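Handoff note, outgoing to incoming analyst
You'll be picking up this chain. Sequence as last confirmed:
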Amino acid sequence: MATNNTKNGMAAEEKITSRRTILRIAEYLKEHPPLLFAIAIGVILETAGALGVETLRILAVPLLFVLVAGLFVHVYLQVRRDAEPWLHGRYGITIDDPRDGADLGEKVRVKGGCQKSPPPGTLRLFTRVGTRLWPQQVAHVFPNGHWEATVYLGGTAPYEIDIVVAVVGQSAQALCEYYKKVGEELKAAGRHHVPLDGWPRNAVEQKSVHVTRV
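Most recent structure output, in case you need it:
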């Protein structure tokens, strides 16, 4: 009797282990669609070979091409994502001052908070009107989770504008620093700086407020 109970217990444990393994495999495939696609194509081609289905045999080459291209794109995007993981973090960033609808002058001290601090130098402010964008300062993040930065609202008042705080990647950081350098040279030459056209690809907006320059 004891032996039978032991065997039954082992069999039940093996079933549970197998079920857990299948669930883990299913979760992994859900997170990696191209791999699931590859398995599906393999099954289809194998079935076609076994059944002698001529049409599927003819489609084998383009299907394999699509498979390889899909896997390549997946790996490329995964590498890009893993290269700058901080862009996908959740920081709980807020803008506490100024508030939406505030009337502001040219120089504004922007203050906010974050539940989790992004990497040093990656929290930056921008000002934005439509698709036009002006990079501003990198925010100083304090140990207590508060941050501050200064933005400048130039041009001829009055007008409405957004103040935006974002977490930026390396290329966006380089773009902003280059923009700042060119701006300093143009200012020294007595010329106006033009805005960027469009949002940087690897900058993730966290929060914004809509204000009026008066």
